[in-house]
Design goal:
heterodimer; A: about 400 residues; alpha/beta; 5-stranded mixed beta sheet; 17 helices; B: mainly alpha; about 0% strand
């Protein structure tokens, strides 16, 4: 009796078919059949009743399954204790990812995990979290990065990250300045995740609870399609901030202020519990470390064009920081404008006024950039941020 | 922007108004320092 035979038996028993076990073990069906026959000969009992494509355990098979699980678990513990490389991923490993994960950090992670586990082939399946849940339980995928935690008893959950949700629209929609009320929101469809998902239900429950039945939610099963439609002005989008923050920064989307509550989304790593989880656990640990080091890995790249780098916090915090920063900057610019006008209207010597401000507590980087240049050249180009850009982001977006 | 916070404030609307006013005066594509130019024009004051 070998561990190859026991592992083959365990996988066929839990997956229910030889076909799925062949994919998992990257072996042919005759190879697996030979292992099972050898095991049955050694034990002197039939382990499976074979009927069509599916196999069912015999009473002896059910009894042996308990021991097989213990044996595999003990082997994994022994290898870990002795420093063996039981965590190496070999063969085909299938990763399931929710849309939000798939269009943000997962592509970079795939390159990383391939480098760490060169003897494995990684496959990516992008789907909504409820579908990933089913695929996990059917062993069609080995690990999922999905909305979580998953409450199923067989699924191991490890917290991964939290993404704030936001309501966005195209600047061309011409939404009113400031907080957008129910009547204005009701003029637009709100595109969000498909109706099987947690964010969809949370949004729907919130609107119903608030009596806002006039606001239409349009579920779409592709996050990228939602973003494209919202950019084209077809409606608003209730989406994770992390997938649109570059578009908000570029001004192609603006955050829309409203009373709609959009709870943050928690994402988890999920895999099915069992004795054969070492590969999934290894990939899950790698994913967590990859996300944790995301900022430090990017730092050398950011340093090529940025002098001051501050890690502001979780995903979404940087864009909020930027928007609040803009408020301070634009407020300072507006105050400088009125101050200079008042000084000139008061008949003050502008050079002496400039020297006074420069030496006092009211001095600032923005004052120096704008006023020093204006005094030398007569233009106001010292701070390269256009009036139109500032006007667009100041009323509608919010931190 | 400050309108989005559950806070009482006075400056958010004022700053936004200043930006819109400069924009309406044809300075939308200029850099924000042009708020000074807008203020000078509105008050018929020569600053520099």
């Amino acid at each position: 009796m070998t561990f190859d035979q026991i592992e083959t038996f365990y996988l066929i028993a839990t997956l229910g078919t030889y076909r799925q076990a062949t994919e998992r073990l990257n072996a042919t069906q005759p190879t697996l059949s030979a292992r099972i026959h050898a095991l049955e000969d050694h034990l002197g009992v039939a382990l499976f009743n074979r009927a069509g494509h599916r196999v069912a355990l015999t009473p002896e098979g059910r009894q042996f399954l308990v021991y097989a699980e213990k044996l595999l678990q003990t082997r994994a513990e022994a290898l870990r204790a002795l420093g063996g490389d039981d965590d190496e991923v070999i063969g085909i490993f299938r990763i399931g990812a929710a849309d939000t994960m798939a269009i943000t950090w997962v592509p970079g992670f795939l390159a990383h995990v391939r480098e760490k586990h060169p003897r494995a082939t990684f496959e990516l399946n992008i789907a909504a979290s409820p579908q990933l849940h089913e695929e996990l339980l059917q062993r069609q995928i080995d690990i999922a990065f999905m909305v979580g935690p998953d409450s199923h008893a067989d699924i191991v959950n490890i917290p991964l990250c939290r993404c704030p949700m936001t309501l966005v629209g195209a600047p061309t929609l011409g939404l009113p300045i400031g907080k957008v009320g129910t009547a204005d929101l009701a003029r637009h469809d709100i595109y969000t995740f498909d109706r099987r998902t947690r964010p969809y239900h949370q949004l729907q429950q919130h609107l119903q609870g608030a009596g806002r039945t006039g606001i239409r939610i349009s579920p779409v099963n592709s996050l990228q399609a939602i973003i494209l439609m919202v950019e084209k002005g077809l409606g608003l989008g209730a989406v994770p901030l992390c997938v649109v923050e570059d578009k908000i920064a570029a001004g192609t989307l603006v955050e829309v202020m409203s009373d709609i509550e959009l709870p943050d989304i928690d994402f988890s790593i999920g895999y099915v519990a069992g004795p054969d989880v070492s590969a999934a656990a290894a990939v899950g640990t790698l994913a967590r470390r990859y996300l944790a080091s995301f900022g430090s890995e990017l730092k050398p790249i950011v340093e090529t064009f940025a002098a001051n780098i501050v890690h502001t916090g979780p995903v979404g915090t940087a864009i909020r920081t930027k928007l609040v920063y803009n408020f301070l900057a634009m407020g300072t610019v507006a105050l400088i404008a009125e101050t200079l006008c008042a000084a000139a209207a008061s008949g003050l010597d502008m050079k002496k006024f400039y020297d006074t401000i420069s030496a006092g507590g009211a001095n600032s980087g923005i004052f120096q950039r704008i006023v020093t240049r204006a005094m030398e050249t007569g233009d106001y180009d010292g701070l390269m941020f256009t009036v139109a850009n500032a006007a667009m982001t100041s009323p509608i977006t919010r931190g | 922007m400050t309108d989005g916070f559950p806070l009482t404030g006075n400056l958010g609307n004022a700053v936004h108004h200043a930006l819109l006013q400069a924009s309406n005066m044809g300075l939308a594509d200029d850099y924000v320092g042009a708020l000074t130019e807008a203020q000078a024009r509105l008050n018929n004051v020569k600053i520099f």
